[in-house]
Amino acid sequence: MQGVPKGQRLNEAGMKQQIGEIACRVARRLGVDKRVTWSSAQSFELENAIAFMKGPDFKAAVASLDDPTCLMSAGYLEPGLLREFFGGDANAYRQFVQYIGGKAVMDIGPCVCTPLSLWDVADRRIVIEPLYDQVVDHTTRMEGVNYFKRVDRAYSYSAERRIPELIGSIDGAIVVRNCIDHSPSWPFILSNIAAYAAPGAYLLLWNDLLHPKEYLDGHFDITDDSSAFRTLLMQLGFDILYEFDLPQQGLLNYGCRAVRRG
Prior knowledge:
Blueprint (H helix, E strand, L loop, with lengths): L5 H24 L8 H16 L2 H8 L15 H7 L4 H11 L3 E5 L15 E5 L3 H12 L9 E3 L17 E5 L8 H11 L5 E7 L17 H10 L2 E7 L8 E8 L2
Parallel strand pairs: 1-2, 1-4, 2-3, 4-5
Antiparallel strand pairs: 5-7, 6-7
């Protein structure tokens, strides 16, 4: 944390500890016996990722990575992104594609593969994924493949760890889908997102805000008020262009397409 005053470092460390302790107390009140920590959450995620990679949905998803007709430059509009972050508005999606052309884009917490692999119009594709090394080791050993294709730089770091060289460097877009609730220090992840995004950069974010009791081994509740979460994003410097939730999740969740204010 070069350049940060010592007192501030201590304060941030104390805040992280307090957040983690609060999460553990909440989990115990809800009847979860196992202590919830960042490490246990990542172990939970890795186990589920390996299981997912054995299934047909993953195989279908990665099949597009070698299909040139699925590249952004070919005019392909990925159905999931179109439906969720653009509400089915193909023109808004095309404007987004035009904007990120020649710019830097980032995916935080993609786990096993990233949509950025198909964003060939971008100048740089950057991934932050704490399980990156483990996932790539698994897929290269088992299948001889690294599915993080066309990624220019991957950081196998926890997302709450601020990376100085990335501050203000993402001028295209940041994708964060189903990531921040995997850490008790999720406020620091949001803070880093705001720090990395240059003015005008898009944010495509979706996350569960609450979880069923059985999910608290690997997840942390964020809030029971989606409007408060929206306000937090706005206070971090993002203007909300479009927002949505996914009713099929069955619990409170929030997603949006936003842009970083200048």
